[in-house]
Write a structure and sequence with these properties.
This protein is of the alpha/beta class and 178 residues long. The protein has five helices and eight strands; from the N terminus they run E-H-E-H-E-H-E-H-E-E-E-E-H. The protein has an eight-stranded mixed β-sheet with strand order 3-2-4-5-1-6-7-8, with helices on both faces. Strand 7 and strand 8 form a beta hairpin.
Length: 178
């Protein structure tokens, strides 16, 4: 992901996976408006909870809260409470560029650098129906403006697999290394 840019995603797990890359690299990450944030799922993906700021329901102050997080964190995940207009997006875009931060929006965003969506998703694990899932593989579609969409495979660790190395996840990540 490029510093100063906004990325729109269509799934909470994809937003977590993008934030996990920065967290594994030692960066602080933040989540605003993510009322369904799952700490256990985040930790299993590699998000260091001790370096995570969570504002689950900023209410009508979501823009101010998000701007404050952008001022101090490398990556911020936002689920805006309503549709965002061009002017509001421009305010955050300017702040992102100034602070060299990245905004990952779960939902639509008028000025997104790229839009990422899950096209296919397959879990692996026990074949008999008992036990724990071990891995999730997904095909991610990346759309950037008028360019043809790009597709890449991404792998998430399953339950109790947070020890997966950053290098392994980078290898299949559509966004490249942090």
């Amino acid at each position: 992901m490029h510093a100063g840019a906004t990325y729109a995603v269509d799934s909470a797990s994809l937003a977590l996976a993008l934030a996990a890359g920065a967290s594994r690299a030692g960066e602080w990450v933040g989540f605003a408006g993510c009322t369904d944030f799952g700490a256990e799922a985040a930790a299993e993906l590699g998000i260091e909870l001790a370096r995570t700021v969570l504002v689950p329901d900023p209410g009508e102050h979501w823009l101010e809260v998000t701007a404050a997080l952008v001022d101090v964190l490398r990556v911020v995940v936002l689920r805006a409470p309503a549709a965002v207009d061009e002017r509001t997006a421009g305010i955050l875009d300017s702040r992102l560029r100034t602070r060299s931060s990245v905004l990952v929006v779960h939902g639509d965003w008028p000025r997104a650098e790229a839009r990422l969506s899950l096209e296919e998703s397959v879990w692996t694990g026990p074949s008999s129906g008992t036990g724990q899932l071990t891995e999730r593989r997904a095909r991610v579609v990346v759309r950037r403006g008028a360019r043809p969409p790009q597709r890449a495979d991404l792998a998430w660790p399953g339950v109790r697999r947070a020890d997966t190395s950053t290098q392994d996840l980078r290898r299949v990540s559509p966004m490249g290394a942090w």
